[in-house]
Design brief:
- With about 550 residues, this protein is α/β, with parallel strands linked by helices.
- It is built from 25 helices and 14 strands.
- A 5-stranded parallel beta sheet has the order 4-5-6-1-7. A 3-stranded antiparallel beta sheet has the order 12-14-13.
- The longest helix is centred in the last third of the chain and has 52 residues.
Protein backbone atom coordinates (compact mmCIF):
# COMPACT_ATOMS: atom_id res chain seq x y z
CA UNK A 1 0.00 0.00 0.00
CA UNK A 2 1.35 3.46 -0.91
CA UNK A 3 2.13 6.30 1.47
CA UNK A 4 -0.75 8.31 2.83
CA UNK A 5 -0.95 11.62 0.97
CA UNK A 6 -0.90 14.75 3.12
CA UNK A 7 -4.26 16.54 3.40
CA UNK A 8 -4.84 19.50 1.11
CA UNK A 9 -6.82 22.68 1.71
CA UNK A 10 -8.13 23.93 -1.68
CA UNK A 11 -8.38 27.41 -0.20
CA UNK A 12 -4.59 27.71 -0.04
CA UNK A 13 -4.28 28.71 -3.69
CA UNK A 14 -4.79 27.67 -7.31
CA UNK A 15 -2.01 25.06 -7.39
CA UNK A 16 -3.28 23.32 -4.26
CA UNK A 17 -6.84 23.54 -5.59
CA UNK A 18 -5.81 21.80 -8.85
CA UNK A 19 -4.04 19.06 -6.88
CA UNK A 20 -7.14 18.65 -4.67
CA UNK A 21 -9.32 18.29 -7.77
CA UNK A 22 -6.96 15.70 -9.27
CA UNK A 23 -7.15 13.62 -6.10
CA UNK A 24 -10.95 13.84 -6.13
CA UNK A 25 -10.95 12.75 -9.79
CA UNK A 26 -8.87 9.71 -8.86
CA UNK A 27 -11.24 8.84 -6.02
CA UNK A 28 -14.26 9.13 -8.33
CA UNK A 29 -12.50 6.78 -10.77
CA UNK A 30 -12.46 4.07 -8.10
CA UNK A 31 -9.17 4.99 -6.43
CA UNK A 32 -6.69 3.23 -8.76
CA UNK A 33 -3.15 3.03 -7.47
CA UNK A 34 -0.52 5.18 -9.12
CA UNK A 35 1.19 1.98 -10.26
CA UNK A 36 -1.99 1.02 -12.11
CA UNK A 37 -2.30 4.52 -13.61
CA UNK A 38 1.25 4.36 -14.99
CA UNK A 39 0.21 1.94 -17.73
CA UNK A 40 -2.38 4.36 -19.12
CA UNK A 41 -0.62 7.62 -18.35
CA UNK A 42 2.88 6.83 -19.58
CA UNK A 43 4.44 8.68 -16.63
CA UNK A 44 6.16 7.32 -13.53
CA UNK A 45 4.52 6.84 -10.13
CA UNK A 46 6.63 9.71 -8.73
CA UNK A 47 5.54 12.12 -11.49
CA UNK A 48 1.85 11.32 -11.06
CA UNK A 49 2.13 11.55 -7.27
CA UNK A 50 3.83 14.97 -7.48
CA UNK A 51 1.07 16.24 -9.78
CA UNK A 52 -1.43 15.75 -6.94
CA UNK A 53 0.90 16.89 -4.13
CA UNK A 54 0.07 20.59 -4.42
CA UNK A 55 3.67 21.79 -4.09
CA UNK A 56 4.01 23.14 -7.64
CA UNK A 57 2.03 23.36 -10.86
CA UNK A 58 2.47 20.13 -12.85
CA UNK A 59 3.13 20.37 -16.57
CA UNK A 60 0.21 20.32 -18.98
CA UNK A 61 1.10 16.89 -20.51
CA UNK A 62 1.19 15.33 -17.02
CA UNK A 63 -2.24 16.75 -16.13
CA UNK A 64 -3.69 15.46 -19.40
CA UNK A 65 -2.15 12.03 -18.80
CA UNK A 66 -3.44 11.96 -15.20
CA UNK A 67 -6.96 12.75 -16.41
CA UNK A 68 -6.76 10.13 -19.17
CA UNK A 69 -5.61 7.47 -16.69
CA UNK A 70 -8.69 8.24 -14.58
CA UNK A 71 -11.03 8.02 -17.57
CA UNK A 72 -11.69 11.78 -17.72
CA UNK A 73 -11.69 14.12 -20.72
CA UNK A 74 -8.13 15.50 -21.12
CA UNK A 75 -9.44 18.53 -23.02
CA UNK A 76 -11.51 19.60 -20.01
CA UNK A 77 -8.49 19.27 -17.72
CA UNK A 78 -6.34 21.20 -20.18
CA UNK A 79 -8.77 24.12 -19.79
CA UNK A 80 -8.49 23.82 -16.01
CA UNK A 81 -4.70 23.83 -16.24
CA UNK A 82 -4.68 26.99 -18.37
CA UNK A 83 -7.08 28.68 -15.93
CA UNK A 84 -4.72 27.91 -13.01
CA UNK A 85 -1.69 29.08 -15.01
CA UNK A 86 -3.38 32.39 -15.86
CA UNK A 87 -4.47 32.88 -12.24
CA UNK A 88 -0.88 32.38 -11.07
CA UNK A 89 0.40 34.91 -13.60
CA UNK A 90 -2.24 37.42 -12.54
CA UNK A 91 -1.32 36.95 -8.86
CA UNK A 92 2.36 37.59 -9.60
CA UNK A 93 1.51 40.84 -11.35
CA UNK A 94 -1.02 41.93 -8.71
CA UNK A 95 1.28 41.45 -5.69
CA UNK A 96 2.91 44.88 -5.72
CA UNK A 97 4.10 44.79 -2.10
CA UNK A 98 7.87 45.44 -2.08
CA UNK A 99 9.89 42.31 -1.41
CA UNK A 100 12.83 42.69 1.00
CA UNK A 101 14.80 39.87 -0.64
CA UNK A 102 16.59 39.90 -3.99
CA UNK A 103 16.31 36.23 -4.93
CA UNK A 104 19.02 35.23 -7.41
CA UNK A 105 19.65 38.87 -8.35
CA UNK A 106 22.60 40.71 -6.80
CA UNK A 107 22.17 43.66 -4.46
CA UNK A 108 22.64 46.97 -6.25
CA UNK A 109 23.88 50.32 -5.00
CA UNK A 110 20.32 51.38 -4.12
CA UNK A 111 19.77 48.24 -2.01
CA UNK A 112 22.12 49.28 0.78
CA UNK A 113 19.24 49.48 3.27
CA UNK A 114 18.50 45.76 2.63
CA UNK A 115 22.13 44.58 2.58
CA UNK A 116 22.79 42.99 5.97
CA UNK A 117 25.46 40.72 7.39
CA UNK A 118 28.47 42.05 5.47
CA UNK A 119 29.27 45.24 7.41
CA UNK A 120 32.68 44.03 8.65
CA UNK A 121 33.81 42.71 5.26
CA UNK A 122 32.67 45.91 3.53
CA UNK A 123 34.76 47.95 5.97
CA UNK A 124 37.79 45.69 5.36
CA UNK A 125 37.46 46.15 1.61
CA UNK A 126 37.23 49.92 1.95
CA UNK A 127 40.38 49.94 4.10
CA UNK A 128 42.25 47.83 1.52
CA UNK A 129 41.33 50.22 -1.29
CA UNK A 130 42.83 53.07 0.73
CA UNK A 131 46.14 51.22 1.02
CA UNK A 132 46.42 50.01 -2.59
CA UNK A 133 45.46 51.51 -5.94
CA UNK A 134 44.56 48.14 -7.49
CA UNK A 135 42.92 45.50 -5.29
CA UNK A 136 41.34 42.08 -5.86
CA UNK A 137 38.25 40.71 -4.11
CA UNK A 138 38.27 36.90 -4.31
CA UNK A 139 35.52 34.48 -3.49
CA UNK A 140 33.82 31.34 -4.83
CA UNK A 141 30.59 31.46 -6.78
CA UNK A 142 27.73 32.12 -4.39
CA UNK A 143 29.79 34.05 -1.84
CA UNK A 144 28.19 37.42 -2.68
CA UNK A 145 31.08 39.27 -4.35
CA UNK A 146 28.91 41.27 -6.75
CA UNK A 147 26.61 42.41 -3.95
CA UNK A 148 29.55 43.28 -1.72
CA UNK A 149 31.05 45.50 -4.44
CA UNK A 150 27.81 47.30 -5.24
CA UNK A 151 25.87 47.51 -1.99
CA UNK A 152 28.83 47.26 0.39
CA UNK A 153 31.82 49.11 -1.09
CA UNK A 154 30.33 51.76 -3.38
CA UNK A 155 28.05 53.42 -0.77
CA UNK A 156 31.03 53.60 1.61
CA UNK A 157 33.22 55.13 -1.10
CA UNK A 158 30.63 57.83 -1.71
CA UNK A 159 30.25 58.55 2.00
CA UNK A 160 33.86 58.29 3.12
CA UNK A 161 35.78 58.94 -0.09
CA UNK A 162 39.56 58.62 -0.04
CA UNK A 163 42.02 60.17 2.37
CA UNK A 164 44.58 62.45 0.71
CA UNK A 165 48.12 63.20 2.00
CA UNK A 166 46.71 65.59 4.59
CA UNK A 167 44.15 63.05 5.83
CA UNK A 168 41.25 64.91 4.22
CA UNK A 169 38.47 62.82 2.65
CA UNK A 170 38.17 63.31 -1.11
CA UNK A 171 35.08 61.97 -2.89
CA UNK A 172 35.52 60.01 -6.14
CA UNK A 173 35.27 61.94 -9.40
CA UNK A 174 33.38 58.95 -10.82
CA UNK A 175 32.63 55.32 -10.03
CA UNK A 176 32.27 53.00 -13.02
CA UNK A 177 31.13 49.39 -12.75
CA UNK A 178 31.75 47.03 -15.65
CA UNK A 179 32.24 43.40 -16.66
CA UNK A 180 34.91 42.47 -19.24
CA UNK A 181 32.84 40.78 -21.96
CA UNK A 182 34.29 39.26 -25.15
CA UNK A 183 36.32 42.33 -26.22
CA UNK A 184 37.08 44.12 -22.97
CA UNK A 185 39.37 46.94 -24.08
CA UNK A 186 37.37 47.82 -27.19
CA UNK A 187 34.22 47.87 -25.10
CA UNK A 188 35.56 49.72 -22.05
CA UNK A 189 38.44 51.86 -23.31
CA UNK A 190 36.61 55.08 -22.45
CA UNK A 191 35.80 53.81 -18.94
CA UNK A 192 39.53 53.67 -18.21
CA UNK A 193 39.96 57.38 -18.93
CA UNK A 194 39.74 59.35 -15.66
CA UNK A 195 36.85 61.77 -15.30
CA UNK A 196 37.52 65.47 -15.11
CA UNK A 197 37.28 67.30 -11.83
CA UNK A 198 38.66 66.75 -8.35
CA UNK A 199 39.10 63.24 -7.07
CA UNK A 200 39.97 59.95 -8.68
CA UNK A 201 37.96 57.68 -10.93
CA UNK A 202 37.16 54.25 -9.50
CA UNK A 203 36.74 51.34 -11.90
CA UNK A 204 35.02 48.31 -10.37
CA UNK A 205 35.47 45.27 -12.62
CA UNK A 206 32.94 42.65 -11.56
CA UNK A 207 33.06 39.06 -12.87
CA UNK A 208 36.68 39.50 -13.90
CA UNK A 209 36.71 35.80 -14.86
CA UNK A 210 34.88 36.76 -18.07
CA UNK A 211 38.34 37.75 -19.31
CA UNK A 212 39.07 34.01 -19.52
CA UNK A 213 35.64 32.59 -20.32
CA UNK A 214 34.42 35.08 -22.94
CA UNK A 215 37.54 36.74 -24.42
CA UNK A 216 39.21 34.20 -26.76
CA UNK A 217 42.26 36.26 -27.76
CA UNK A 218 45.33 36.26 -25.46
CA UNK A 219 46.56 39.56 -26.89
CA UNK A 220 43.29 41.31 -25.98
CA UNK A 221 43.51 39.91 -22.45
CA UNK A 222 47.04 41.21 -22.01
CA UNK A 223 46.10 44.66 -23.30
CA UNK A 224 43.12 44.90 -20.93
CA UNK A 225 45.17 43.78 -17.91
CA UNK A 226 47.92 46.25 -18.82
CA UNK A 227 45.36 49.07 -19.11
CA UNK A 228 43.94 48.23 -15.67
CA UNK A 229 47.38 48.09 -14.09
CA UNK A 230 48.17 51.65 -15.19
CA UNK A 231 46.12 52.59 -12.12
CA UNK A 232 49.16 51.67 -9.98
CA UNK A 233 50.72 54.95 -11.10
CA UNK A 234 49.57 57.71 -8.68
CA UNK A 235 49.43 60.15 -11.59
CA UNK A 236 46.87 57.99 -13.42
CA UNK A 237 43.98 59.30 -11.26
CA UNK A 238 42.51 55.78 -11.49
CA UNK A 239 41.80 53.16 -8.86
CA UNK A 240 40.71 49.63 -9.74
CA UNK A 241 38.81 46.98 -7.77
CA UNK A 242 38.57 43.50 -9.31
CA UNK A 243 35.93 40.93 -8.35
CA UNK A 244 37.33 37.49 -9.16
CA UNK A 245 35.99 33.97 -8.71
CA UNK A 246 38.41 31.88 -6.66
CA UNK A 247 38.58 29.09 -9.25
CA UNK A 248 40.07 31.57 -11.75
CA UNK A 249 42.76 32.92 -9.41
CA UNK A 250 45.41 30.66 -10.97
CA UNK A 251 44.76 32.20 -14.37
CA UNK A 252 45.38 35.66 -12.93
CA UNK A 253 48.90 34.62 -11.94
CA UNK A 254 49.75 34.28 -15.65
CA UNK A 255 50.20 38.08 -15.67
CA UNK A 256 53.09 39.32 -13.55
CA UNK A 257 51.55 42.64 -12.53
CA UNK A 258 48.26 40.99 -11.67
CA UNK A 259 50.10 38.31 -9.71
CA UNK A 260 51.60 41.07 -7.53
CA UNK A 261 48.11 42.40 -6.84
CA UNK A 262 46.93 38.89 -5.94
CA UNK A 263 49.81 38.49 -3.49
CA UNK A 264 49.76 41.84 -1.76
CA UNK A 265 46.39 43.54 -2.26
CA UNK A 266 43.62 40.99 -2.09
CA UNK A 267 40.72 40.25 0.22
CA UNK A 268 38.99 36.88 0.35
CA UNK A 269 35.24 36.69 0.91
CA UNK A 270 34.72 34.41 3.90
CA UNK A 271 31.62 32.51 4.95
CA UNK A 272 29.13 34.40 7.08
CA UNK A 273 29.18 33.73 10.78
CA UNK A 274 25.99 32.63 12.55
CA UNK A 275 25.35 36.20 13.69
CA UNK A 276 25.89 37.56 10.18
CA UNK A 277 23.56 34.96 8.67
CA UNK A 278 20.89 35.85 11.21
CA UNK A 279 21.19 39.50 10.21
CA UNK A 280 21.02 38.60 6.49
CA UNK A 281 17.74 36.75 7.15
CA UNK A 282 16.04 38.99 9.72
CA UNK A 283 17.42 42.43 8.76
CA UNK A 284 15.60 42.88 5.42
CA UNK A 285 12.33 41.61 6.93
CA UNK A 286 12.68 44.00 9.84
CA UNK A 287 13.24 46.89 7.42
CA UNK A 288 9.86 46.08 5.82
CA UNK A 289 8.09 45.48 9.16
CA UNK A 290 7.85 41.75 8.54
CA UNK A 291 8.42 38.93 11.03
CA UNK A 292 10.54 35.82 10.52
CA UNK A 293 9.63 32.83 12.68
CA UNK A 294 12.45 31.84 15.01
CA UNK A 295 12.11 28.26 13.86
CA UNK A 296 12.61 29.39 10.25
CA UNK A 297 15.69 31.47 11.13
CA UNK A 298 17.25 28.52 12.95
CA UNK A 299 16.48 26.18 10.05
CA UNK A 300 17.95 28.57 7.48
CA UNK A 301 21.18 29.00 9.46
CA UNK A 302 21.52 25.24 9.79
CA UNK A 303 20.80 24.62 6.10
CA UNK A 304 23.31 27.25 4.93
CA UNK A 305 25.96 25.89 7.32
CA UNK A 306 25.63 22.50 5.63
CA UNK A 307 25.78 23.97 2.11
CA UNK A 308 28.82 26.26 2.39
CA UNK A 309 28.72 29.30 0.10
CA UNK A 310 25.01 29.36 -0.64
CA UNK A 311 23.92 33.00 -0.44
CA UNK A 312 22.04 32.96 -3.78
CA UNK A 313 20.19 29.83 -2.63
CA UNK A 314 19.40 31.51 0.69
CA UNK A 315 18.18 34.71 -0.95
CA UNK A 316 16.00 32.86 -3.46
CA UNK A 317 14.52 30.59 -0.79
CA UNK A 318 13.64 33.68 1.26
CA UNK A 319 12.05 35.32 -1.79
CA UNK A 320 9.86 32.27 -2.45
CA UNK A 321 9.03 31.97 1.25
CA UNK A 322 7.98 35.62 1.23
CA UNK A 323 5.59 34.88 -1.65
CA UNK A 324 3.94 32.18 0.49
CA UNK A 325 3.94 34.26 3.71
CA UNK A 326 1.04 34.28 6.14
CA UNK A 327 0.10 37.89 6.58
CA UNK A 328 3.31 39.63 7.66
CA UNK A 329 5.04 36.48 8.90
CA UNK A 330 7.52 34.27 7.06
CA UNK A 331 6.97 30.75 8.40
CA UNK A 332 8.89 27.49 8.41
CA UNK A 333 5.92 25.83 6.72
CA UNK A 334 6.08 28.36 3.84
CA UNK A 335 9.81 27.72 3.51
CA UNK A 336 9.27 23.98 3.21
CA UNK A 337 6.44 24.46 0.71
CA UNK A 338 8.76 26.68 -1.36
CA UNK A 339 11.24 23.82 -1.65
CA UNK A 340 13.75 24.73 1.04
CA UNK A 341 17.30 25.94 0.45
CA UNK A 342 18.26 23.32 -2.11
CA UNK A 343 14.91 22.93 -3.84
CA UNK A 344 13.49 26.45 -4.13
CA UNK A 345 15.35 27.38 -7.33
CA UNK A 346 14.43 24.15 -9.10
CA UNK A 347 10.82 24.42 -7.93
CA UNK A 348 10.55 28.01 -9.17
CA UNK A 349 12.17 27.16 -12.52
CA UNK A 350 10.02 24.07 -13.01
CA UNK A 351 6.94 26.07 -12.07
CA UNK A 352 7.62 28.53 -14.88
CA UNK A 353 8.65 25.84 -17.35
CA UNK A 354 5.51 23.80 -16.62
CA UNK A 355 3.32 26.68 -17.83
CA UNK A 356 4.82 26.57 -21.33
CA UNK A 357 3.31 24.50 -24.09
CA UNK A 358 5.66 22.36 -26.22
CA UNK A 359 6.60 25.22 -28.57
CA UNK A 360 7.37 27.70 -25.79
CA UNK A 361 9.21 25.03 -23.79
CA UNK A 362 11.57 24.52 -26.73
CA UNK A 363 12.05 28.29 -27.05
CA UNK A 364 12.93 28.41 -23.33
CA UNK A 365 15.49 25.63 -23.80
CA UNK A 366 17.13 27.45 -26.71
CA UNK A 367 17.19 30.75 -24.81
CA UNK A 368 18.75 29.22 -21.70
CA UNK A 369 21.47 27.43 -23.69
CA UNK A 370 22.35 30.69 -25.46
CA UNK A 371 23.13 32.10 -22.00
CA UNK A 372 25.74 29.42 -21.18
CA UNK A 373 29.48 29.22 -21.80
CA UNK A 374 30.33 25.50 -21.51
CA UNK A 375 33.31 24.68 -19.34
CA UNK A 376 36.35 22.56 -20.08
CA UNK A 377 38.40 20.17 -17.99
CA UNK A 378 39.98 23.18 -16.25
CA UNK A 379 36.99 25.54 -15.99
CA UNK A 380 33.35 25.13 -14.90
CA UNK A 381 30.27 26.04 -16.88
CA UNK A 382 29.57 29.76 -16.60
CA UNK A 383 26.91 32.22 -17.67
CA UNK A 384 27.39 34.61 -20.55
CA UNK A 385 25.77 37.91 -21.35
CA UNK A 386 24.00 37.34 -24.65
CA UNK A 387 23.65 40.32 -27.01
CA UNK A 388 20.22 41.32 -28.22
CA UNK A 389 21.19 40.32 -31.80
CA UNK A 390 21.38 36.67 -30.76
CA UNK A 391 18.01 36.79 -29.04
CA UNK A 392 16.44 38.49 -32.05
CA UNK A 393 16.94 35.22 -33.96
CA UNK A 394 14.33 33.71 -31.66
CA UNK A 395 12.14 36.80 -31.49
CA UNK A 396 10.62 35.95 -34.86
CA UNK A 397 9.18 32.75 -33.35
CA UNK A 398 5.69 33.38 -31.96
CA UNK A 399 5.77 33.43 -28.17
CA UNK A 400 9.46 34.23 -27.74
CA UNK A 401 8.89 37.60 -26.08
CA UNK A 402 6.41 36.01 -23.70
CA UNK A 403 8.92 33.32 -22.75
CA UNK A 404 11.64 35.92 -22.12
CA UNK A 405 9.30 37.95 -19.92
CA UNK A 406 8.17 34.88 -17.99
CA UNK A 407 11.76 33.80 -17.31
CA UNK A 408 12.68 37.35 -16.26
CA UNK A 409 9.59 37.72 -14.06
CA UNK A 410 10.56 34.51 -12.25
CA UNK A 411 14.04 35.94 -11.61
CA UNK A 412 15.80 33.28 -13.67
CA UNK A 413 17.22 35.67 -16.27
CA UNK A 414 17.97 39.38 -16.33
CA UNK A 415 16.98 41.52 -19.31
CA UNK A 416 18.46 44.89 -20.16
CA UNK A 417 18.84 47.06 -23.22
CA UNK A 418 21.95 45.20 -24.38
CA UNK A 419 20.71 41.62 -24.03
CA UNK A 420 20.12 38.95 -21.40
CA UNK A 421 22.01 36.80 -18.91
CA UNK A 422 21.33 34.25 -16.19
CA UNK A 423 20.52 36.08 -12.99
CA UNK A 424 23.09 33.94 -11.17
CA UNK A 425 25.31 31.00 -12.05
CA UNK A 426 23.79 29.08 -9.13
CA UNK A 427 20.92 28.34 -11.50
CA UNK A 428 23.20 26.12 -13.63
CA UNK A 429 23.60 23.56 -10.84
CA UNK A 430 20.43 24.18 -8.85
CA UNK A 431 18.06 23.50 -11.77
CA UNK A 432 18.57 19.86 -12.84
CA UNK A 433 16.74 20.33 -16.15
CA UNK A 434 19.13 23.11 -17.23
CA UNK A 435 22.11 21.06 -16.10
CA UNK A 436 20.85 18.13 -18.19
CA UNK A 437 20.39 20.37 -21.25
CA UNK A 438 23.98 21.55 -20.93
CA UNK A 439 25.29 18.00 -20.56
CA UNK A 440 23.34 16.78 -23.58
CA UNK A 441 24.49 19.68 -25.76
CA UNK A 442 28.04 20.30 -24.50
CA UNK A 443 29.87 19.69 -27.80
CA UNK A 444 27.23 21.63 -29.70
CA UNK A 445 27.60 24.54 -27.27
CA UNK A 446 31.36 24.58 -27.78
CA UNK A 447 30.79 24.74 -31.53
CA UNK A 448 28.17 27.48 -31.13
CA UNK A 449 30.50 29.63 -29.02
CA UNK A 450 33.31 29.17 -31.57
CA UNK A 451 30.91 30.13 -34.36
CA UNK A 452 29.80 33.31 -32.57
CA UNK A 453 33.39 34.38 -31.88
CA UNK A 454 34.60 33.54 -35.40
CA UNK A 455 31.71 35.41 -37.01
CA UNK A 456 32.40 38.47 -34.85
CA UNK A 457 36.08 38.40 -35.86
CA UNK A 458 35.10 38.05 -39.53
CA UNK A 459 32.81 41.07 -39.19
CA UNK A 460 35.64 43.06 -37.59
CA UNK A 461 37.92 42.57 -40.63
CA UNK A 462 35.27 43.58 -43.13
CA UNK A 463 33.69 40.22 -44.00
CA UNK A 464 36.55 38.93 -46.11
CA UNK A 465 35.09 36.97 -49.02
CA UNK A 466 37.72 34.25 -49.02
CA UNK A 467 37.33 33.30 -45.34
CA UNK A 468 38.33 29.70 -44.71
CA UNK A 469 36.74 27.32 -42.24
CA UNK A 470 38.85 24.33 -41.24
CA UNK A 471 37.65 20.85 -42.27
CA UNK A 472 37.32 19.96 -38.58
CA UNK A 473 34.88 22.83 -38.00
CA UNK A 474 32.97 21.94 -41.15
CA UNK A 475 32.62 18.40 -39.84
CA UNK A 476 31.31 19.81 -36.55
CA UNK A 477 28.83 21.93 -38.48
CA UNK A 478 27.47 18.77 -40.10
CA UNK A 479 27.43 16.90 -36.79
CA UNK A 480 25.96 19.59 -34.53
CA UNK A 481 23.79 21.77 -36.75
CA UNK A 482 20.97 20.18 -38.70
CA UNK A 483 19.02 22.25 -41.21
CA UNK A 484 16.38 22.95 -38.56
CA UNK A 485 18.96 24.00 -35.98
CA UNK A 486 20.59 26.40 -38.45
CA UNK A 487 17.43 28.48 -38.18
CA UNK A 488 18.79 29.44 -34.76
CA UNK A 489 21.90 31.10 -36.19
CA UNK A 490 22.12 34.87 -36.20
CA UNK A 491 22.26 36.57 -39.63
CA UNK A 492 25.97 37.27 -39.08
CA UNK A 493 26.67 33.63 -38.18
CA UNK A 494 24.71 32.42 -41.20
CA UNK A 495 26.58 34.83 -43.52
CA UNK A 496 29.93 33.73 -42.09
CA UNK A 497 29.10 30.06 -42.63
CA UNK A 498 27.85 30.75 -46.17
CA UNK A 499 31.09 32.56 -47.03
CA UNK A 500 33.20 29.81 -45.49
CA UNK A 501 31.27 27.07 -47.26
CA UNK A 502 31.57 28.94 -50.57
CA UNK A 503 35.34 29.16 -50.09
CA UNK A 504 35.44 25.46 -49.24
CA UNK A 505 33.51 24.55 -52.41
CA UNK A 506 35.80 26.72 -54.56
CA UNK A 507 38.80 25.04 -52.97
CA UNK A 508 37.39 21.59 -53.74
CA UNK A 509 36.64 22.57 -57.34
CA UNK A 510 40.15 23.98 -57.76
CA UNK A 511 41.65 20.84 -56.28
CA UNK A 512 39.63 18.64 -58.64
CA UNK A 513 40.65 20.81 -61.59
CA UNK A 514 44.28 20.70 -60.48
CA UNK A 515 44.14 16.94 -60.12
CA UNK A 516 42.55 16.63 -63.57
CA UNK A 517 45.24 18.82 -65.16
CA UNK A 518 47.90 16.88 -63.30
CA UNK A 519 46.49 13.59 -64.49
CA UNK A 520 46.42 14.89 -68.06
CA UNK A 521 50.02 16.05 -67.83
CA UNK A 522 51.09 12.70 -66.45
CA UNK A 523 49.23 10.87 -69.24
CA UNK A 524 50.74 13.16 -71.86
CA UNK A 525 54.22 12.63 -70.46
CA UNK A 526 53.80 8.87 -70.43
CA UNK A 527 52.44 8.85 -73.96
CA UNK A 528 55.31 11.03 -75.19
CA UNK A 529 57.82 8.72 -73.54
CA UNK A 530 56.21 5.66 -75.09
CA UNK A 531 56.27 7.20 -78.58
CA UNK A 532 59.91 8.17 -78.14
CA UNK A 533 60.85 4.64 -77.12
CA UNK A 534 59.06 3.20 -80.14
CA UNK A 535 60.85 5.59 -82.50
CA UNK A 536 64.21 4.67 -81.02
CA UNK A 537 63.49 1.01 -81.56
CA UNK A 538 62.59 1.61 -85.20
CA UNK A 539 65.72 3.61 -85.82
CA UNK A 540 67.85 0.99 -84.19
CA UNK A 541 66.17 -1.72 -86.29
CA UNK A 542 67.37 -0.24 -89.67
CA UNK A 543 71.05 -0.84 -88.83
CA UNK A 544 70.66 -4.12 -87.11
CA UNK A 545 71.24 -7.58 -88.67
CA UNK A 546 68.63 -10.13 -87.94
CA UNK A 547 70.09 -13.33 -86.51
CA UNK A 548 70.78 -16.09 -89.10
CA UNK A 549 70.87 -13.68 -92.02
CA UNK A 550 74.08 -13.72 -94.12
CA UNK A 551 74.47 -11.00 -96.72
CA UNK A 552 76.50 -11.76 -99.97
CA UNK A 553 79.94 -10.24 -100.24
CA UNK A 554 80.38 -7.70 -102.98
CA UNK A 555 83.50 -8.13 -105.21
CA UNK A 556 85.68 -5.23 -106.02
CA UNK A 557 85.57 -4.09 -109.63
Amino acid sequence: MGRQEKPLDPGQGPVVRLAYDLRRLRQEAGGPTYAAMVRRAGYSVATLSRAAAGDQLPSLPVVRAYATACGADPEEWEERWYAVSQELAAREQADDAPCPYRGLARFEFGDEDLFFGREALSADLLALTREHRVVALLGPSGSGKSSLLRAGLIPRLLRAGRLDEKGTAVCPAAIRVLTPGAHPLDRHRSALVPASGEGETWVVVDQFEELFTLCPHPAEREEFVAALLTARDPDSRLRVVLGIRTDFARRCHEYSGLAEVMRGARLTVTRMSTAELREAVVGPARAHKLVVERALTARLIADVAESGYALPLLSHALLETWKLRWGRTLTLDSYERAGGLQGAIAQSAEGVYARFDATRADIARRIMLRLITPGTDDTPDTRRSTPRAELEVLSGVPGTDGVLEALARAGLITLDGAGASLTHEALIHAWPRLNDWIGQNREKLHFQRWLTEAADAWEAIGRERGVRISPIRLAQLTAHASDAERDGFTPLEADFLAAGLATHRRTLRNRRATRAVGSLLVATTLLTAAVARRQRRLLCGQGARPPGLVLPQRSNP
